[in-house]
Design brief:
By secondary structure, the protein is an alpha/beta fold.
């Protein structure tokens, strides 16, 4: 009803609309969708956001109604047309960034069979172990990944085992953004970057793995056509044009997984660059040129949204969350920036205080759900500023653990591009430069995956010959922070101590987690 009212009002308005050509980048997240309108010069001329609910009916469950994605995206687009006065005829292309791994199942009539199971749905532990018990190292060799609960295949097997009546009706499997694009175009497809996140792709041969599908009796027919992220996936349908106000002349492009699109939007387009992203969790992501690279599942390995390229990534589960936890627990009434800036009163190494940010378990390089965080070295001299500094440093030390895997694999880099919370504080940028011992650069237009999606549309429209050429126009850098040699040495010494925390505290924290569950 809201959308119909918006479009009725739109038809009655006589205002002047924006007449410059643009593309839309649709960033479909876990709690909201953000739609960016970006012109040929790479400037964001308008953006709108719309929230939608997350359902957690049981512990470990995380589900959404796919129609909520469609409705929220449509409201955001209508607002761009109505409130921001974008001319629908000037919207030349649309592409998509989507939350990864989510499972959407459709029947023979392309109707949704059950709520989508999201990336943070962890009910499929049993299926995860079944996969490894049946295929073991062969699975890792094929997919370059471990079948963690977050990925799509364990979810699909959970449905097969626990909801067999639904599984029998499945005709198509999609990921979240691909369902959204289908509803806008009536075309079914999935891009390679999101498909590798299903852990059903043979990475070396770039196709659905018949070996995996056969091992678990999954019909290959439910797997949609594989396309590149810049491929044309059809025009806006007549129905969706009437529903949203868009033009049927607007072309859609496949888009990519949110991490792949975030990397595109940050200019991660060569092997010397690393992305350091601090949100609730933290991500270290590296551009990879060789599909034969295999980190044995310790780091994820995925197809990039850039054609014929790849990326690897490691996740630390409680990056920004650790800082939020500290602030909310010990400084709830204070401004966030004031709490962080207080760390300036401390020194390198927080006066001998270390923090391990495992307060929700850890993903990489330690896949350990029961490890827990700790402050090590608390002394009577320590003040709050030391604790804040220790948290900032501990998060970056956890990133250093991931970077070590690249060094062990002789995979070199000389630039870190910082986005998210780690790019908003000069102090935190400097800590990264010193611990990583490379230059750290931040973005002046940190629009995240939405910008990456818009760039894929711009390349698909042939405004540019390549994603790299597009990045020159669309991605803009500002601060360049260089490492301080004296502090680099101090952090190297401190990191040797930090590396001892996980093996030393593992058994203790496991026992504490067990104790809490029992009492």
């Amino acid at each position: 009803m809201t959308i119909i009212i918006y479009l009725t009002c739109l038809s009655l308005r006589k205002e002047v609309y924006v007449m410059e050509e643009c593309v839309l980048g649709v960033d479909l997240g876990t709690s909201s969708v953000k739609v960016l309108a970006v012109n040929r010069q790479g400037k964001t001329i308008a953006q709108e956001k719309m929230d939608f609910p997350l359902h957690q009916p049981l512990p470990g469950y995380a589900e959404q109604n796919p129609e909520d994605w469609v409705n929220a995206t449509t409201v955001a687009i209508v607002r761009l047309i109505l409130n921001d006065r974008l001319n629908p005829n000037q919207i030349k292309g649309i592409s998509y960034s989507g939350q990864m791994h989510g499972l959407v199942l459709l029947d023979k009539d392309n109707q949704v069979l059950r709520p989508a199971m999201l990336w943070n749905d962890t009910r499929s532990t049993k299926q995860r172990f079944e996969i490894m018990n049946r295929m073991g190292e062969k699975f890792v060799k094929l997919t370059h990944n471990l079948p963690l609960e977050g990925f799509t295949l364990p979810k699909l097997l959970w449905v097969k085992e626990n909801q067999p009546d639904i599984f029998k009706k499945v005709k198509v499997m999609l990921l979240p953004k691909d369902y959204l694009r289908f509803r806008m175009t009536n075309n079914l497809a999935i891009d390679y970057s999101d498909a590798t996140g299903t852990v059903m792709i043979d990475v070396q041969n770039q196709c659905w793995s018949k070996e995996i599908l056969n091992a678990f009796n999954i019909p290959e027919s439910i797997c949609p056509k594989l396309v590149k992220s810049i491929d044309n996936t059809g025009n806006i349908s007549q129905w969706y044009a009437k529903y949203s106000g868009l033009s049927v002349k607007t072309v859609t492009f496949a888009g990519g997984a949110d991490n792949a699109c975030g990397a595109v939007g940050a200019g991660i387009d060569s092997s010397n660059k690393i992305l350091s992203s601090i949100g609730t969790s933290g991500v270290i992501l590296k551009y990879e040129e060789n599909k034969s690279t295999n980190y044995e599942g310790i780091l994820q390995f995925e197809d990039h949204a850039i054609p014929n390229a790849f990326y690897s990534m490691g996740v630390t589960l409680s990056a920004g969350f650790s800082l939020n936890w500290f602030k909310n627990t010990f400084a709830a009434a204070e401004k966030f920036d004031d709490v962080i800036n207080g760390a300036r009163e401390s020194s390198v190494g927080a006066n001998g205080l270390l923090f391990a940010p495992y307060i929700m378990g850890e993903r990489a390089p330690y896949a350990d759900a029961n490890i827990r965080g700790s402050f090590i070295g608390i002394d009577g001299i320590h003040k709050r500023c030391d604790f804040v500094r220790a948290v900032l440093e501990g998060i970056i030390f956890s990133f250093k653990d991931i970077l070590n895997k690249y060094e062990e694999n002789n995979s070199h880099f000389d630039t870190v591009i910082a986005i998210g919370g780690g790019a908003k504080s000069k102090l935190w940028q400097q800590i990264q430069a010193n611990i990583f011992n490379v230059r750290v650069i931040s973005l002046s237009n940190d629009q995240g995956p939405g910008l990456g999606a818009a760039m894929l549309a711009a390349v698909g429209l042939e405004w540019f010959n390549s994603v790299k050429e597009c990045a020159v126009q669309f991605v803009h850098f500002k601060d360049v922070i260089l490492p301080n040699s004296n502090n680099v040495q101090r952090y190297q010494e401190l990191y040797k101590i930090y590396k001892k925390i996980y093996p030393t505290t593992k058994d203790i924290t496991h026992e504490l987690v067990s104790f809490r569950k029992n009492y």
